[in-house]
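# step 3/5: fold
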Amino acid sequence: GFVFWIGTHGGAWGFGKAARSARMLLDVNGPGLYRRNKELMSPEDYAAWKQDIRKRSREIPLVIDYDPVEVVYEDEDLLAVVKPCGLKIHPAHRFVGGTLVNRVHGYLGSAPFTLHRIDQSTSGIVLMAKRKGPVLSEMSRLFREKEIKKEYLALVDTPLDDNVMETGKTFLIDAPIARDDDDLFARKVCRDSEDRKEAKTEVWPMENGRSVSLVRAMPITGRTHQIRLHLRHAGYPIVGDPAYGPRGPWLNPDDIESRSQLRLHAWKLNFKHPVTKEDVTLTAAPSLDFLRAMKIHGLALDALPLESAHT
């Protein structure tokens, strides 16, 4: 059988992975049973054990990093920063640094509360709350109920159809997403899987370049890897996507630099501020690497902001 173990020094974020491993034992040991070490646990005992691990993990101080952060917006309750491509949002354990949360902790002097996530390989805006309270609760509700609008920029392989470019109209990708049975961390578009979830993405064509196009994408739902999967499903995989993008010796060697990273950027975020009730729009300028990749493929830069801003 499967043996599961977790030390008492796991972090608040690392615990989540361990807990998911425990839940995987549900089908192995029979209905309603979990295994920890060699001990079978009831759902009630498992819940109590989980709560105890979380309590102990929070007693470990969160590592503080003092690497600089790019701030897009800040007030008494909220902070929006730009996450670079390749940087994780959360540490695996509280005693491990090197993530966006650790950097923001160094900037604020206290641990932030993340309100949403973007993939490690995705760059762009991440919004956080500075403290517990009504603003954190209300912003969490807005994200949970999909009342916050998010827009992404993506460089995609294969130019968009002429008809699509001529009309300039948006198109909707409506395709459910499920876990990939062959890869623990991957997802797939699948209409017949029992664990499939509804997924919709709206896409705006912006410009065709040499073999690559620039698009804007707005996820209507919020599934893991949704934009990456949906664009591939539509025939437009994102440039540099290590999991869902094209790869092989047939790729033009001149494009290697442009494909060194996932070219997906969380560009805009719009929400109604819970305190001022004003409409807030945050914009994060793409990185120099993203802009350089656009230039390599003959895409104009004048349509994009070169500085981050809020309105």
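# step 4/5: annotate
The chain has eight helices and 15 strands.
# step 5/5: archive (pending)
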